[in-house]
Design goal:
single chain; alpha+beta; BirA Bifunctional Protein, domain 2; SH3 type barrels; 9-stranded mixed sheet; 5-stranded antiparallel sheet; EC 6.3.4.15; biotin--[biotin carboxyl-carrier protein] ligase
């Protein structure tokens, strides 16, 4: 279980703590809520008053959402949290945090299971377990004067249960749960305890050394490199062999018409 430090303040029914330095990343705050509409919405409400990067976690969400406005279904016992920061970065640099978050999730899964073999990363922002989707990442930001004024990194993890696959669009990766696939029973609090320091380490890597080592580490864990995938965009679909991601995080496909670099799409296997 998480050990917590002295509470800094308690707004309403939230418990806010600064955990001890030896079990929580320095400079990061944490808010744990029993129930909220969505952690992304709560993060946006709190962003103007932040003193530093803050994890907003909820044990229950009533109106969660995923990428492109899709509903995110989170049964009881699953993990739902948003890391909200005020990074003063350009949009392209802020977008690289999806790779930071993916690597942090991978590290957290390894920490709570002791296994690396069943986990892989799906571009642009999913984590797979035995080929099924166990976690997703959603980035939202607000800009001012050409800079991102705050960045929210929403993370949902199927710790205890997976949503019904009938809700998914045709061809989407099947949802799985950590408990169902590995037998590891992990509470949301325990998972946050593993994820927060993992994210802090990966963020420090990006800040210190740039995107190159993050890109290399992500590619080493990527799913379906060298295989044919379909990139589905609002303007249509592109099929090609997944070769790499480029220096800006775009997926690069080898197609019959040459290489194609794609910034945003849903990938289907």
């Amino acid at each position: 279980m998480l050990r917590s430090g002295a509470p800094t303040f308690v707004p309403g029914n939230a418990t806010v703590t600064r955990p001890f330095a030896n079990d929580w990343p320095d400079g990061y705050d944490r808010v744990v809520l029993p129930r909220v509409d969505s952690t992304m919405a709560e993060a946006a409400r709190r962003a103007p008053d932040l003193r530093g990067p803050t994890w907003v976690m909820a044990l229950e969400q009533t109106d969660a959402r995923g990428r492109r406005g899709r509903t995110w279904v989170g049964p009881s016992g699953n993990f739902a949290a948003t890391l909200v920061t005020r990074p003063s970065l350009g949009a392209e640099q802020a977008a690289l945090r999806s790779f930071v978050a993916a690597l942090a999730l991978y590290d957290a899964f390894v920490a709570v299971t002791g296994r690396t073999d069943p986990f892989s990363l799906k571009w642009p922002n999913d984590v797979l377990l035995n080929g099924g989707k166990v976690a997703g990442i959603l980035l939202e930001s607000a800009a001012q004067g050409g800079q991102v004024s705050f960045l929210s990194i929403g993370i949902g993890v199927n710790l205890a249960d997976a949503p019904n696959p009938s809700r998914l669009e045709q061809g989407a990766v099947r949802p799985v749960s950590l408990l169902g696939e590995t037998g590891a029973a992990v509470t949301p609090e325990e998972f946050l305890h593993a994820l927060a320091p993992a994210y802090a380490r990966q963020e420090a890597q990006l800040t210190t050394f740039g995107f190159a080592p993050i890109r290399e580490a992500w590619l080493a864990r990527a799913a379906r490199i060298g295989e044919t995938v379909v990139a589905r965009m609002a303007s249509g679909e592109v099929s090609g062999i997944f070769e790499t991601i480029d220096a800006t995080g775009n997926i690069v496909l080898a197609t019959p018409n040459g290489k194609r670099s794609i910034a945003a799409a849903d990938i289907f296997f």
